Sequence to fold (327 residues):
Amino acid sequence: MTVQLRGWVELNGTKLTRDDVGKIVRDAPGNAGGFGGEFLLSWNHCTARDTLGIIPGRIPPGSIVCNGVLVCRVDPCLPKMDLEGAILESVRLRCDQGVVALSGGVDSSLVAALAGLPCIAVGLEGSFDLERAGHAAALIGIECDRVVIGRDEVEDALREVLAVIPRKNPVDASIATTLYFVAREAAERGHERILSGQGADELFGGYARYLSSPDRNAERERDIAGLRTQGERDQAAVLLHGVYLSLPYLDLRVFRAARAIPADRLIHQGVRKHPLRQVAERHIPPELAFAEKKAMQYGSGISNEIRRLARRRGFHHVRDYLGSLEG
Fold:
């Protein structure tokens, strides 16, 4: 039996090899229902995909399909953990290989400090993220390659990204283009996995609108519902270089621990993502744990560069410029 695996699989906190997986599912495909991790798994006309659908695939997230028929769901029975324990375990399971996409904010800095892996930061010359990532790496005491994106590279990358992402608006295009460059550097260094802080803003109320929202719980539910489309965008962009994003904050343990925190506790005295920052300050300097940071498309300088390109090409609106590239 040939087993094809993209990503990684765990069972009760233990990482499994491809051979381990094959032995478990060979006679009973439904045994994959207990698998955790981030995976797209195929064997004997069957396919299984992780619960949250982190790894892209043609079957719904959290399903096992054999010969076109749904066999059962993937829903691992994991022990209930507090937020700190969940984050520590999620990074432990991912830190055996890969690189960390570091921007200098609390999300990526915490992952970088816990994983101990080499880091990559990308941005245009003089960008906020390159400066912050270098500062964060120095404070934590880790290695970080800061890669300067050439302005002449952005338009070609944007054209490639627009061909694969599901939504072609300026925000999605600029985020995906930033990740495109992270993925390029990771692939050139021989890595297939990129650990990223994606998902933390949605789970922990990281957006500025949470400060004035009349219903933070509804706000968070809308953000969490959008994670699937966001994931499709991000994975499509990095797959252009044959790599995939691994997301510690969307580990099921972390996901469930975060969801158990009432939405009104996500903000404390005007500080967003407060529960996450409380965990972070026990593992990284408080300066990083409580630092405010720009979103990646702004911090990398990519969003501004796309606007500049649009004006240079004679477009008053970035959407029209994107449409011309897509066409």
